[in-house]
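Re-running the complex after MR caught last week's input typo. The corrected sequence lines follow. Everything else is unchanged.
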Amino acid sequence: MYYAVIVATLVTMALALLRAVRGPTVYDRVLAVNMFGTKTVLLLAALAFVFGRPDFLDLVLVYALINFIGVFAVLEFFRNRATRAGERQPAQHE
Amino acid sequence: MNIAIDIASWVLLTLGGVNLLIGGIGVLRMPDFYTRMHAASLTDSMGAILVILGIMLQAGLSLATVKLGAILAFLLLTSPTAANALAVSALLAGMKPRTGDAVQRTNHEADA
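Corrected-run output:
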């Protein structure tokens, strides 16, 4: 029942990792990591029912929270770095 | 009755899986960052709804369904917010969305 979703999620996570590796700009990588985190949420939710242990769902909820906060932390870091780079010399962006 | 629930959740789960794949391929093939973000947030919202609804049908009326509902609500609230924050910070950092040729052509016709 769940194998289609699990395989689809794993393939999507692999594609997201490929984008993270190939992504030219930093924001592509942040996007890929965010997508990877969300797919982990779905994968864990499906696995919770494959293993028949519904208490995995607490893990899923915590992971969704942390993934969300993580994206904002990384974006904040890049924003500070952009402003710091802006002071020294104008930030070049392709 | 049980068969109907199984079939319905199987359909939802498969559609969710297909949606995830479409988003994953979209992230790779899209030319520009902002179009890639569209593909990624596509899976975050629609894929999550389908998959988690499919699992909720399987869980039936239990605590797991309540937890899944909380997860779905949280995902639907946060993934668009994260995508928006990502787009805004990319735009502020100076990443221009790549407008197609159509926009330049209409500008020329307007000037002529």
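None of the earlier attempt is carried over here. The helical segments of chain B are 2-29, 33-59, 63-92, 101-111. Chain B touches chain A through 51 residues (CB under 8 Å).
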